[in-house]
Amino acid sequence: xxxxxxxxxxxxxxxxxxxxxxxxxxxxxxxxxxxxxxxxxxxxxxxxxxxxxxxxxxxxxxxxxxxxxxxxxxxxxxxxxxxxxxxxxxxxxxxxxxxxxxxxxxxxxxxxxxxxxxxxxxxxxxxxxxxxxxxxxxxxxxxxxxxxxxxxxxxxxxxxxxxxxxxxxxxxxxxxxxxxxxxxxxxxxxxxxxxxxxxxxxxxxxxxxxxxxxxxxxxxxxxxxxxxxxxxxxxxxxxxxxxxxxxxxxxxxxxxxxxxxxxxxxxxxxxxxxxxxxxxxxxxxxxxxxxxxxxxxxxxxxxxxxxxxxxxxxxxxxxxxxxxxxxxxxxxxxxxxxxxxxxxxxxxxxxxxxxxxxxxxxxxxxxxxxxxxxxxxxxxxxxxxxxxxxxxxxxxxxxxxxxxxxxxxxxxxxxxxxxxxxxxxxxxxxxxxxxxxxxxxxxxxxxxxxxxxxxxxxxxxxxxxxxxxxxxxxxxxxxxxxxxxxxxxxxxxxxxxxxxxxxxxxxxxxxxxxxxxxxxxxxxxx
Length: 526
Hints:
47% of the residues are buried. The chain contains 16 helices and 23 strands. It starts with 16 loop residues before the first strand and ends in a 21-residue tail after the last helix. The protein folds into two domains: 17-244, Rossmann fold, CATH 3.40.50; 261-505, Rossmann fold (3-Layer(aba) Sandwich). The protein is of the alpha/beta class and 526 residues long.
């Protein structure tokens, strides 16, 4: 719009970073097509899209990990070539990754030092300590990364970007493993950085977080920009519909009858498996056929140790400490438990749930071989395994670029759908699933949630371990909280709220005495 004669011109601020016609192809696959995007200084800008929409490819080009096939990037008005992450960081671009870029055998401090100019270790440790105290990130510089939970690893990623004093921060699913209280702490940090004039490019499938935090949103679909919006003027459902091009169906329970106890732990105690791990103390839980039991907790309070004990990756000292359909299983390993109808989905999909370099069919065999499934030629393999993998892909809408691709070629959400589908299509009597929708989009998350509820509706007992309270309240009949290796009694979901559960997660509110089970009858209110 032209200015009136004699009136001062109203200028749109020049963007900190401008993307013009950016495209990226991998052979015949077009990950990004002719992307235009501006991010202003002092702006929180969301980048939205379903899994496989091209978000990660785009930000990897901004961070110098990938080179564009066409188009250009302008930094403060001038064209730049970002040939490496070092070049991006030198300009003032920092990135927090969804999948952690950390070396397992190095310490927290050593991992942070890799992306910073050389300095004395004592000085860096002091800076990390100051950052931890200032922002509440709770980092111990001397701890090795292999001993840390997913939430603690996320804190390293955030801290090492903040120590670079960035002008633009790219965050890829930063709250996916955080509690509501931790997320609010992160938002407070990001609000402070915005007030300092820094820019944020924010990728998240938690659309309520986007509405809370972001000024503008750009929506990608199939590698193209399909629109922009003001998140504060939208609902989570309307933004999700823009992402997928259709309305997302509400998740609903079939409300099947609740049966007998199918899975239980009685006085399950295990020492900490490592110096910085968490011991389990007197764990009691009981799950009946047809119900979903949720376990909430802050990262690092024993979730991984509990999953390992429930799955048989770690054995109990007493066979009766774990029961499957009434029979002792505490001394059975994971293979024996699978043969008795149990299935398990760990938190880390790359490396734990799936071997990245293996084809999907080979990954299927890794968990299905224990169940006694056979093909015409003997144990499950070859064409039979590929046929079942194809069934998982089709049933769970796994977006794969080849008939039987390597697991590493799938986006995070699509690999998660495959891993969950691989277990659910077995029709297990018991399912234990850790962080079921970590880093997946709204459409994939709804599909996983519906599959879990449908499985319970067919009479299976389901245990969901999650740090996402929205997810737990959506799925679960009853909720427990794990804190410092101790599990609270179960409470009917309809008889508690987020604030109470969040406080229990932080250890602020003491749990009722052990053995005082609260509202043990499930309430089907999904």
